[in-house]
């Protein structure tokens, strides 16, 4: 396949994108799982629909398809430690990641972060494999609004509060 743009150049350009930080969670056959994600976007408000890009190499990747439901937790400025716990730079995966932050079970039975700016609980309606990732399309079935304070962002490979 012809490679027009080097992946390193692409990553450098993307590091200049101001991105909101989220933790995507689910509860599958093997228990709770989650990962930090910036690749989250709204698709439509009619019906409320969003998408998340999930690297298929993530250890819990199959749990998201299997469970068929997930939560998108939009992190507040105070949640950097939560982002780090779910960010894949420590050995922890699965349940141990939830030792950071306060988690409750949401209406769809998925983990929801207390104090998050917003939590979107979604039913998985489509999963499309594109390159290295699964694009998960979720129908939003519940929204919880938290405090509308400082938001955790990721820019230039570091966290910021905006
Ligand atoms: C700030 C930040 C943003 C990330 N965004 C994404 C993302 O949008 N999609 C994704 O698949 N992985 C993303 N990752 C990487 C995953 O969080 C990481 O690969 C995952 O937690 C590894 O899980 P595992 O150790 O269980 O395999 C991001 C990591 C960080 C620190």
Q: Which structural traits does this protein have?
A:
162 residues, mainly beta, globular, Pnp Oxidase, Chain A, binds flavin mononucleotide, 4-hydroxyphenylacetate 3-monooxygenase reductase component, monooxygenase, FMN binding
Overview of the molecule:
- It comes from Starkeya nomas.
- Keywords: Monooxygenase, Oxidoreductase.
- Residues 14-161 form the Flavin reductase like domain.
- There is one protein chain.
- This protein has helices at residues 7-14, 61-67, 80-85, and strands at 19-20, 22-28, 31-37, 40-45, 48-55, 69-74, 103-105, 111-113, 118-130, 133-145, 152-155, 158-161.
- By secondary structure, the protein is mostly beta strands.
- It has one domain (20-156): Roll (Pnp Oxidase, Chain A).
- The strands form three sheets. The chain has a seven-stranded antiparallel sheet with strand order 3-2-6-9-10-5-4. It has a three-stranded antiparallel sheet with strand order 1-11-12, with no helix packed on it.
- A hairpin with a 2-residue loop joins strand 2 (22-28) and strand 3.
- The chain is globular and about 45 Å long.
- The chain starts with 6 loop residues before the first helix and ends with a strand.
- The structure holds flavin mononucleotide.
């Amino acid at each position: 396949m012809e490679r027009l743009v080097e992946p390193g150049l692409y990553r450098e350009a993307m590091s200049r994108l101001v991105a909101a930080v989220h933790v995507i969670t689910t509860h599958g056959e093997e228990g709770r799982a989650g990962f930090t994600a910036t690749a989250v976007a709204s698709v439509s408000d009619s019906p409320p629909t969003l998408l998340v890009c999930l690297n298929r190499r993530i250890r819990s990747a199959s749990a998201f398809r299997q469970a068929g439901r997930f939560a998108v937790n939009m992190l507040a400025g105070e949640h950097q430690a939560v982002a780090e716990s779910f960010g894949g730079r420590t050995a922890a995966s699965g349940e141990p990641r939830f030792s950071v932050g306060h988690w409750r079970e949401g209406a769809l039975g998925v983990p929801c972060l207390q104090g998050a700016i917003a939590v979107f609980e979604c039913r998985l309606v489509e999963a499309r494999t594109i390159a290295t990732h699964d694009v998960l399309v979720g129908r939003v079935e519940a929204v919880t609004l938290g405090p509308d304070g400082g938001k955790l962002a990721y820019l230039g490979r570091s966290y910021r509060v905006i």
